[in-house]
Specification:
Elements: H1 8-29, H2 44-68, H3 70-75, H4 82-98, H5 103-109, H6 113-133
Helix pairs in contact: 1-2, 1-6, 2-4, 4-6
Length: about 140
């Protein structure tokens, strides 16, 4: 058998997935609101930018993986491994976190800020768990 090196597209898909995971971890480590005195916080605009960057990297990971690897296409069935289901769930939750975050849509979906915060904090926890379990 001859060993072949992975294609550039496949390697790019893996780098995009790694970047998505790292940015997601960064979002978890740098809060927007200080929970303890003297803790470094992230301005909301940067938090939103990093959220969109995470979604972009995760989307690029999925698209490049599907284009570059025929095995990935076979995995999109009922027999999909659990780590891929976790990645699919994480991507769906990222979509839920990013798309309704735009100001106009957010105001239409939730009338009170506490409702937004409560829903997003719950989804953040689930998304972080799904993302980490997909690694």
């Amino acid at each position: 058998m001859t060993a072949h090196s992975p294609s550039l597209l496949w390697q790019s898909a893996q780098v995009a997935g790694l970047l998505a995971a790292l940015v997601c971890l960064l979002l978890s480590l740098l809060p927007v609101r200080p929970r303890t005195p003297g803790r470094v916080t992230l301005p909301l605009s940067r938090h939103e930018f990093l959220g969109w960057l995470t979604l972009l990297c995760a989307g690029a990971h999925v698209l490049l993986a599907l284009v570059s690897d025929t095995v990935a296409l076979e995995h999109i069935r009922v027999t999909t491994p659990l780590y891929e289901w976790a990645g699919i769930a994480a991507l769906a939750l990222l979509l839920f976190l990013c798309i309704p975050a735009s100001a106009g849509l957010r105001r239409r979906l939730w009338s009170r800020h506490n409702d937004v915060r409560r829903n997003r904090e719950g989804v953040h926890n689930v998304a972080g768990t799904a993302r980490l379990s997909s690694l």
